[in-house]
């Protein structure tokens, strides 16, 4: 079986200090049940791709890994990594809404962020 274990760098994915702080808090709340946080990309139709994160019990042999000294790993499979190159993961809390935000994702795939005219609402 081939293994693929690439170390992620900031040219692949930037994670802001506020995102690292929030991810650390969420992982710590699991009391050791989570080994990693998986970043994924899913098809989003006319509006482009959807980016998100979920807990992972383990990393897979094909994952690229971003380790840190906070006690968790970020893992990305090769297909998702192709859509994330150079993207930034941030955590924004404006007092009313709080969420993870993926910035520069259109840059990563060479898109413009506009609808291609499929007839759907943009």
Find the CATH topology. Answer: Hypothetical Protein Aq_1857, Chain: A
DSSP helix fraction? 10-25%
Amount of beta strand: 25-35%
Rg result:
15 Å
Helix-strand makeup class: alpha/beta
Strand order of the largest sheet: 1-5-6-3-4
Gross geometry: globular
> Helix count?
3
Could you describe the 3D structure shown?
With 122 residues, the protein is of the alpha/beta class. It has one domain: HesB-like domain (Hypothetical Protein Aq_1857, Chain: A, Sandwich), CATH 2.60.300. The chain is built from three helices and eight strands. It has helices spanning 17-28, 78-84, 105-109; strands spanning 6-7, 13-15, 36-43, 49-56, 64-67, 73-76, 87-93, 98-103. The strands form two sheets. The protein has a five-stranded mixed β-sheet with strand order 1-5-6-3-4. Strands 2-7-8 form a three-stranded mixed β-sheet. The protein is globular, with a radius of gyration of 15 Å. The model is unreliable at 110-122 (pLDDT under 50).
